[in-house]
Amino acid sequence: MNRLYYALKKEFIILLRDKSALIALFAMPMMFILILSLALKDVYKEYSSVKLDYIIVNLDKGKNSQKFIQELKEYKNLKFVIKDNLKEAKELTRDEKYNFTLVINPNFSKDLYKIDAKNLIDIYTSSITKAHIKLYFESKIAQKIMMLKVQKMIDAMTMYNDKVKPTPLNQLIQTHYLYHDINRQNIPTATQQNVPAWIVFSMFFVIIPISTLFITEKNDGTFTRLKSINSSKTVLFVSKIIPYMIINQLQLISMIAVGVFIVPLLGGDRLDISGVNFMALFIIGLSISFGAVGFALFLSNLMKSTEQASTVGALSSIIMGAVGGIMVPKLVMPPVMQQLSMISPMSWGLEGMLDIFVRNLGVGSILFESAVLVLFGIISLGLAIWYYDKRV
């Protein structure tokens, strides 16, 4: 027991003296959280709540165009103003005062119900409008045109039969959102996406300080001296695991604090922790940490020099982060890449974190991800011990 105490004391002293490693473990992920949460704030809002302002220029003046304009009022998130001057409307849109100019062409009322109707509407937008926003707006306009056409067909079929009362079109389909907490809408913000992602990445970044220190001690004869006084490898590995798992939990707490307190001060979205299950967070945090430290010890025993360990450690962290959805969210990945991401342990850690921070799920939801990470850590640790026995 005394040997474990002194081994742990040695590890903490060395770790606290290594200021550059501590800066990398804490400052780097904090900066990523701040920068990306602010930079991507509006991007996530575009996907979660589209609100657009546009101009309508009605060149038709017929009854059908008036009916069409009335239908467009049902879109509460699409606000329009009506102007008569097309040139002025185009200039306002070009200068980004409005998102779009919608022109109802003179043939709208006459051709609306024709099968081969063409060029009923022209839409003008600024050159910097994003493609997905343009497609969203076009789909909403097309939907209202089709509703008018379908309503005309229904009226024609029922005009001679008063007993037939067709269901209003807006009642045919109802959309319902499914939330785990009925009082929350669970629309993820940039902060909710980035804080969990960089918590996971920062935990795995201990690969570099662990492997560097491990190889230094191996090369300067520390391990040989420990073996000569019958210090077991259990003491050696446990003394490496415990300090860095503690560091990992401090990283987790500090990253959450950044999301809760610092990001909103700079204009970003505050990390909402009101629905977080802290027992689930504790379990997934320890699981990620164990997997990360186990993998770091495996690489430490595999590499022969500190330079090699630093290079391979950094590259492996970046590759696991890129594949695992840390740097590029999995929701924008093609299906093949989403499946491939499962080979990265960071992916399992991130999914567990998102279950807690975004989906507000409990302990049961993260048990499988936690088990995978612990298994990954056990395998890595087993390989580390095997290589250690071979080389020392």
Write up this protein.
With 392 residues, this protein is mostly helical. The protein folds into two domains: 2-44 and 190-391, no CATH class; 50-171, Periplasmic binding protein-like II (D-Maltodextrin-Binding Protein, domain 2), CATH 3.40.190. 65% of the residues lie in helices and 6% in strands. It has 16 helices and four strands. It has helices at 2-17, 19-39, 41-48, 63-72, 86-94, 108-111, 131-158, 190-204, 207-219, 222-228, 233-265, 278-302, 306-323, 335-340, 345-357, 363-391, and strands spanning 52-58, 78-82, 100-104, 121-125. The chain has a four-stranded mixed sheet, with helices on both faces. Strand 1 (52-58), helix 4 (63-72) and strand 2 form a beta-alpha-beta unit. Helix 9 (207-219) packs parallel to helix 12 and helix 11 crosses helix 12 (278-302). The longest helix is centred in the middle third of the chain and has 33 residues, at 233-265. The model is unreliable at 169-186 (pLDDT under 50).
Write the layout of secondary structure elements.
Layout lengths: L1 H16 L1 H21 L1 H8 L3 E7 L4 H10 L5 E5 L3 H9 L5 E5 L3 H4 L9 E5 L5 H28 L31 H15 L2 H13 L2 H7 L4 H33 L12 H25 L3 H18 L11 H6 L4 H13 L5 H29 L1
Parallel strand pairs: 1-2, 1-3
Antiparallel strand pairs: 3-4
Helix pairs in contact: 1-11, 2-8, 2-11, 8-11, 8-15, 9-12, 9-13, 11-12, 12-15, 12-16, 15-16
